[in-house]
## 1
Amino acid sequence: HGSHAPARRIIAVKSGGEAAIPDWQACFAELAPHLEVRWWDDPQVAPEDVDYVIVWQPEPGRLAAYPNLRLILSSAAGTDHITSDPSWPRHLPIVRAVTPEASQRMAEFIVMSTLALMRDLKRAITGQHQRVWDNFEVDRCAWDMRVGILGLGSMGAASARMLRSVGFGVSGWSRSQKAIEGITCHAGREGLDAFLKETDILVCLLPNTPETTGLINADLLAKLPAGAGLINAGRGTHMVLEDVLSALDSGQLSGAVLDVFEEEPLLADNPAWTHPKVIVTPHIGSIASRRARAAFYAEQIRRFEAGEPMDALYDPVAGY
Ligand code: NDP
């Protein structure tokens, strides 16, 4: 009886810090025992022994130093934290972490933020800090509001559907034309102005690419109806923060929930921290559980080793 046990493979992990390694090891021991999880900086692991990596922001040059690396697994949905390294091994596939759980968590975050803006939660929290019983009225509900989502991928589409089920009018914008039931879909630069004109709360769930950098600037914000809201859970590079803060000061924007910033952690002197109309959250939009991601990675590695097509691959032509 021949052995069908797959060859032992090493995954070097830089995601969640060294303290997370036992947890990753426990997940893979159950799912795919031939995959041995080792800490990224484990001195016992020689670079030529590494077959796979699970990474968030690998130090520039590190990936290129693994001569036998076969596949890069992003610890997140984005890949910009990998491809920003000029020496990243371009011949290797990158698998993005896309799981139903991650999409669900993002959709929950977007619904929470949309409701917070609509009901002016920041005003209530500010009142609480000052012990002011500010019994204000909000004269609108979800049915009166149109939410527009930049990016209709795994995160954007799930958020669109959940917002719709809460009662919001929902539209979306993507590069290629989409068809999602109950959602008005726009595409391309030519579809952007019409999309913005009918958006009361703008949500950004785009990937970070040269085309999307700086998209949310004064020019774009001026195309929204006066008093619109903004939620950015894409990347900090998508917005010109000074333009966002000016639009809040002028009243063109009425409030913002900002989860991502060009420099993270957000610097102590950044004006976003103290702006009265801004809710700052520390890049918590969606963090998928290790268990769900490990199951996803194990399945993608199984397919890779079997020569089957994988899911959620980075597209080098599109750049995301
Ligand atoms: P996907 O690749 O699945 O979706 C990206 C969407 O953006 C697609 O609909 C795509 O269009 C659209 N898009 C890309 N470029 C353009 C462009 N130039 N013009 C118009 N539309 C464009 O990514 P995900 O949904 O999985 O993730 C999106 C991003 O969300 C990540 O890259 C990351 O930056 C961010 N993110 C943030 C998290 C957080 O915690 N804050 C957590 C997870 C993700 P098309 O459909 O035509 O390809």
## 2
Amino acid sequence: MSKPKVIVTRRWPHEVEQRLGDHFDVTLNEADRPYEQQELRQALLLADAVLPTVTDRLGADLFAGGVRARILGNFGVGFNHIDIAAASAAGLIVTNTPAVLTDATADLAMTLLLMCARRAGEGERELRSGKWTGWRPTHLCGTQVSGKTVGIIGMGRIGQAMARRCHFGFGMEVVFFDSQPVPHPGMPARQLATVDEVLAASDFVSLHCPGGGENTRLINERRLARMKKSAFLINTARGDVVDEDALVQALRERRITGAGLDVFETEPSVPRALTEREDVVLLPHLGSATSETRIAMGMRVIDNLSAFFEGRTPPDAVN
Ligand code: DGY
């Protein structure tokens, strides 16, 4: 029997590409640049499985009129770049890679929180530019994190992993919002009834909800106004959860103290209004970027594909 035809839209870690090639008839994107829309459409027409990432926008137009592909194995946990309803209507199963990137992403959220609190980005820029004049008692003083309150928006796996780091590692109080009851959050933590209540109570707000849908611009001008003046906003979720213009305005007017962002509305372009500010820490979507995690994510995609083509339900089907 011939192997299912699989198109991978970006290069993956070597070990994963090797295993993929053992089981499937694989076409790799040798150039490792994002596919154009018509290339994605072609992929859906030519392959039995297409393996996209967050850089591929798979809107309803790509599925219109039917496609050959029967499964989309997304390399990543977030899938708001895929129109799930349209993919389902066209008969495709969509899978993602939950759980394997929880620790890496929570580590990066903690990195941003600490960098913001301790002005680490400012310090590094000062030193590298030769402007450091030596130790002095008032130099680049940041904010202590122990004893402060972190507010988690979205208490799923990553939110809980972040909360554990904050509570057990750094002695912080935890409050959170989640649209579902979370009876056993794994640490002493208070679930508050609204996002606004969490914003008002927190010294650091860390976003861990999915992007798209009702979460688009969840953190807008009105909600930023609920935050403490001394507070920081951390986003490792999706860029569209934050209204970037409103965030810049809040920073300019010193209505909040700073922000740590790993994700942006129109990646990879990042507004100049953000890159020119000292009070933000900006990273290029590195949440899951450890070698171990990226390998685990790829292997998870393969597990899902194998299940599907062997007639079993893929463990991480999202539709
Ligand atoms: C994820 O897994 O969702 C990462 O953000 C990359 O897509």
